[in-house]
Amino acid sequence: MNYYHAKDQNENASSPADIADGADILFAQVAQHAAGNQPAQTPSDRPYNSYFYYTEAQVAVKQGKIEKAIRLLKKASQLDPQSVYLRLELASLHLNQKQKERALETLENALVIDPNHVEALIFYANMNHNLKQTQEAIQAYQKVIRLAPQKEERVYLLLGNLWMEDGNLDAALKVYADLIVNFPASFAGHFFVGKILVQKGQVQQAETSLLQALELEPDLEEARFQLLKIYRDSGDSAKVVRLYEELLQKNPKNIRAALELGLFQYKNKLADRGATLFSDLGQRSDQDQEIIRKLVQNYIDPKQYADAVTALEGMLKGAPNSSDLHYLAGLSYEGQNDSENAIQHLLQVDRDNRFYENAVVQIAAIYQDQEKMDLAIQTLQSAIEMAPDIPEFRLYLGSFYEEIEAYSDAESILQSGLEIDPDHIQINFRLGVVYDKWGKKSASISRMQKVIALDPKNANALNYLGYTYADMGQNLDEAEALIRQALKYKPDDGYITDSLGWVFFKKGLYDKALIYLRKAVELAPDDPIILEHLGDAYLKLNDKENALKYYQKSLQQKTDDTEGIQKKINDLRAP
To answer: Which pLDDT tens digit goes with each residue over 241-253?
Structure first.
């Protein structure tokens, strides 16, 4: 039996690292034989057996020559086709080189040799897990557990996590229960059983499991947070406060616990205690950016704006001049549709703060939403006077001028932005749109061509230029190529799909146009132009019933320029 087969069957055999340590001796022998013009010999009298290539591969790995090592391991595998171990080594190297598909293929070959090889199954399951091939990973993890139930706690945790991601709480619960049977001291097993039982509403059993997890691992914060859900729902305020205090005693910088306890105290008529916590967080926030991140992650991103406002107003009492906190307060008030307080806080963001640019744009956007375009424009004009080197202010001001059809002003301010940054992609794109709306097609085309030169993967510019050609009935082959390229980057975009359908319409390929235009309507069902395009295609195919249907749908969505579509409807209804 050679080394590899022994390794495959004997867990106590030498490791690859052990073998590699002897490689230098082996190659010294090879070199010595070569110097005497004698054939290199190995202990088996076969100079190029699998062992030789394996050891040579280990040397290549030590030297950082991974591709060479892969080639050598492939030769070793060819000479020893029944070695699972060699294929595991080869798969590891493929993975090292980010060759995931090759690694997976190599593992599949290993499992053909030995379908019950536990290490290969674990590796195979992990690969499928990383590649989001969930069912394959689940089946492999399940097989590992059947073959070796006490092999690795981690296998249970990974399998349970996959079931939870899949929404199958019952399957996950069984996996974690089996984990506890085979690894009774697994605090993770007890924790996940408790977490799932909380989600299932089985609170008494959940509490028992979570307390067991804490007994095994007293510093497990997440178990306490799960218990807090139970006690908050049951109205047990004493236990809630005690658990939060335990968390803060163990870790005084536990931001989540401080935020949640502060909010709990405010909601339970203990505002003075909550105020102390929030004031302290506010004072710390300037030095500890994790506080800002937690606020955004736990309250602003999930749109829990009322809680965010409560916390931020309390924190501002401890740090009244914090631009970061004023900015977040502005966003939170805006989330509550309280524009007045939002603007008040956004105005207090200092010019040297990282959020200053966003704050100015947010104020202008609020005025825009309120249809106060004069104030929106004035806000950006003032910002440009104070910070003339920020091109984004000119970008947004240009878009506001575009909205009120002041195209000359839009062109002027956007051009001034390009003087600051000639290669600013968004400003170049916006200027191209302005020229298009202004009727300056040639200038619009040139600008979109520049955007594509700067950013060849810019799907919006590729589509805009392609659609412009199609709408003009020019360069239709180039238009098709541009739009197909855009679809590579945004394959499910209804507007780009419509553009491709419109190209085929302009080419007179109405059956083909219909395919893409119907798909575009599925992707963007309320766009009046796409609906009208689909009606046009049906009309060309002499399907007047569907043409009328989609013209009427288009008319329902239009807010202006309805004369053209109304005429099409009238013409179809005429006897």
So the answer is: 999 999 999 999 8
